[in-house]
Amino acid sequence: MQRTFSGPRAEVCPQPSTHAAVVAVAIIMLPVCAGAQVVINEFLPDPAGSDGGHEFVELLNTGPESVDLGGWQLQFANGAEGAVWQSRWTGTAGQSIPGNGRFLIVDRNWLGEAVGDAEAALALQNGPDAIRLVEAGVLHDLVGYGALTDTLLMETAPVPVTPGRSLARRPDGRDTGDNRADFVAAEPSPGAANFALRLLTLVESQLEPPCLAAAGEPVAVAVTLRNEGLEPLPMARLLLTCDIDTVEATLDAMTAGEERRLEWTVRPSRPGRRPLRLLLPLPASSDTLRVLLGDYQVGMAELVLNEALAAPRSGQGEWIEVVAPGPAACDLGRFRLRDEDGDWVSLRPLLLQAGERAVVVQDSLGFSGWLAANADGPGDARGCGAAVLPLSPWPSLNNSAPESRAFADRVQLADTSGTVIDQVVLGDAGEDPVGDRSLERVGGAAAGWAGSLAAAGSTPGCANSVSDPFGDGQPESALEALPAAVDRTSGDAAIHLRFAVPEGVEGWDLSVFDLDGRQVRDLGGDGRGAGPRSLFWDLKGDDGRAVAAGGYVASLRLRPGAAGAPAPSRLLLVVR
Fold first, then answer.
1. Can you give the pLDDT at residue 5?
2. Statement to judge: residues 517 and 530 lie in one domain
3. What pLDDT is stored for residue 533 in this prediction?
4. Secondary structure tally for the chain: helices H, strands E
5. How far is CA 168 from the centre of its chain?
6. Do 332 and 371 belong to one domain?
C-alpha cells in the first residue's frame, strides 16, 4: 500500500510493514517523505532566559487541502543518545491544519502572546538534538540542530542554534531535504509568517559621541543594515530621524540577504532622550519600512558623571563619582557603567536626592584608607559624607591610548534600556591621565572636563575644584577672568574665563595668544546661540605642556550673525 501527499514536491512514501510499531521511546527506521505537505516550519529550542513556557514548534501545511492531525506525533531525540525518539505531542481526533495554514504547539504554561493550538511539555533542549514529525509510521519531516554528527538525526546537515533566536524556514515551507540550507536563525514568530516580503533590519549601529552634552552639536551615526525580506529593495531615500530633526541618504538597491553600511551627521535640536529611527519610504508603494535605533540622550540626564580617577598612585584605587543634578531623586540601581572596552556593570540600588553625590569605587578598603590619610588635610579630600559604593567587576580604566584610537578610555553611564546618558573621555588627544589627579566636570553638562586643581589631586564626594568661581551672576563685561594673574608657586593652576554671547550671533571662539601674537591655546567655541559661557584655561598650550611665565592675551571672537561681526574682546592674563 502506498500513500501520496499533495503540495510542493509531493512524493510517494511507502508504508512500513504491518508488524512495525510506534512507541513512546523507540529506535525505529521510518521511510522519509521528503517535501511532505506538512512540515516543521519554525521552532524555538533555546529561548532567552528560562526555557519553560517559551519553547514552541510551528507546523505549516504547504498544500491547499486541510490535513487531519489525529494520531500525528512530534518526537524528540537527544543527540547524546542517538536515534532514541520520545513523543512530545500526539494529535487528537478533531485537530487539523487548514490548507496553507499553521498549527502551533506551545510549551506547557505558555507565556507567549500567540495563541497555541496545542500545549505539550516540549523540553526540546539546546542541541545537539533533533525533532521529527511522524504519522502512521511515515516520517514527514526531520530537523537536526546544534553540533550533530549522527546522520540519522538530520536531513543532510544540522542547523546551528543561536540563543534567543528561533530556527525558521526561509521562505516559509521551503524543504530541500537539507536542514542547514532550509533553516536560518530568526526573530521568533510563532503562528505568523517567518519573514516578511519587505523587511529591513539593523545589524550594527555606531553613535559618536554616544550622547551629547548639549543640543545643536553634531552626532555621527553609522549603521549596517540587512535586507531580511524575501524581495529585493529598490533604490530609495533612507531618512534618519532624531525627534524633529531629519537627515537623509540614498540607499542603493539591495537583494534579499544583502547588507549595506550608511553614515549620517545629525544635529539634535532639543534636549532630552530622543528616539533615533530609520524610515525607508518605498517608491511606487504606500509602505514605509521602519528601523528603531534606540533613544539618544541630549543634554543633562537625571544622573551624570562628575569626576573620575583613572591613574591612582596612593593606594585608593580607581573610582568614579556620580551626582543627581535634580530636581528629582534618583535610584542608582536603574543605571550601569562600562568603559570603552568592557561590559556593562549594574550599580547597586541607592536613592540619591537632588544634588547628592556617590563615589563608585574599585577598592573600598583602599579608598577608605585614602580618606583616613587625608583626615587632617584639605576639606575636599575627606569625602564630604558622600555614599561609597563598591562595583564588581570593575571597568578597569586604561591610562594610555591603544593603537586603535586617540584616547585612553571612555567611561559611559547608561540606563537599564542601554541608552547612554553620559560619558567622559579619559586621556583625550593622546594625553595620558595624570597620576593621582582626577578629571572633574566643569559646571553643567556642556561645560566640559578638566584635571582637578585640588591640593590632594581630587575631590571625591565633594564640590569639584574646577567649579565656576563666578557663581550665578551675569558677566559685567565682554570677557572676564578670575584671577587675571596667577602664581603657580602658590598653587594656582587655572584661570577661569566667562562671557555672554549676545542675541543674533552665530557662535564664538576663544583663544590664548602670547605677547608676540602667536596662538598658544585654542579653548574652543560653539554655535548654540545666546547665553552665558564659563570655561577655564589650565595654563597649558595646545601641545599639552605648561606655558612659560609671562603675559598672555585671551581673545574672544564672536562669529558674524544677524548682529554683524562684533570686534574681538581681549583680556591680558599674567602667569608667574
1. 29
2. yes
3. 77
4. 2, 42
5. 26
6. yes
Does any domain span residue 195?
no
Q: Indicate whether 142 and 277 sit together in one domain.
A: no
Whole-number pLDDT of residue 294: 95
So what's the pLDDT on residue 451?
79
Question: By C-alpha distance, which of 550, 544, 434, 433 is closest to 488?
Answer: 550
- Strands laid side by side in the 272-281 sheet: 245-251, 236-242, 272-281, 288-298
Count how many residues are written for the chain: 576
pLDDT digits (tens, 9 = 90+) for 290-323: 999 999 999 999 999 999 999 998 889 999 999 9
Q: Report the distance separating Cα 227 and Cα 256, nearest Å.
A: 5
**Same structural domain for residues 373 and 338?**
yes
| Alpha carbon distance 198, 179 (integer Å) | 24
Q: In terms of C-beta density within 10 A (0-12 exposed, 13-18 middle, 19 or more buried), how is residue 376 classed?
A: exposed
Exposed/middle/buried for residue 47 (C-beta within 10 Å: 0-12, 13-18, 19+): buried
Rg, C-alpha atoms of the chain: 33
List the one residue out of 396, 406, 380 whose CA is nearest residue 341.
Answer: 396
**Which residue from 358, 360, 356, 359 is spatially nearest to 346, judged by alpha carbons?**
360
pLDDT at 20: 36
% of residues, the chain, pLDDT over 70 = 88
Contact 466, 492 (CB under 8 A): no
Output the domain CATH number for residue 383.
2.60.40.1260
Cell numbers that stand for 68 in this block: 487531519
Do residue 278 and residue 336 come from a single domain? no
For residue 172, which amino acid is it?
D
- Tell me: do 410 and 554 sit in the same domain: no
Please list, in sequence order, all residues whose beta carbon lies within 8 angstroms of the beta carbon of residue 443, skipping any fewer than 6 positions away: 467, 468, 534
What pLDDT score does 471 carry? 53
Structural domain containing residue 573: 470-576
The CATH number given to whatever domain includes residue 535 is 2.60.40.4070
| Closest alpha carbon to 131 in 95, 158, 149 | 158
Alpha carbon distances (Å) from 204 to 291, 313, 496: 12, 39, 42
Q: How is residue 348 written as a grid cell?
A: 547597586
End-to-end alpha carbon distance in the chain: 106
Q: Are 527 and 507 in contact (CB under 8 A)?
A: yes
Render pLDDT for 389-436 as a digit per residue (tens, 0 to 9). 999 999 999 988 888 888 999 999 999 999 999 999 998 766 667 778
Q: Contact 454/465 with Cβ under 8 angstroms? A: yes
214 plus 168 within the same structural domain: no
Angle at alpha carbon of residue 460, lines to 449 and 388, rounded to 5°: 125
Cell numbers 530541500 correspond to 176
Q: What is the DSSP string of 67-98?
A: EE-TT-EEEEEETTT-S-EEEEEE--TT-EE-
CA pair distance 305, 398, nearest whole angstrom: 17
- How many domains are contained in the chain? 4
Tell me: do 181 and 260 sit in the same domain: no
**pLDDT score recorded for residue 464:** 86
The pLDDT of residue 36 = 66
Q: Which helix (H) or strand (E) holds 130?
A: strand 129-135
Asked whether the beta carbons of 308 and 362 are under 8 A apart, the reply is no
Helices within 246-285 (DSSP H only): none
Residues of the chain with pLDDT under 50: 1-27, 34, 470
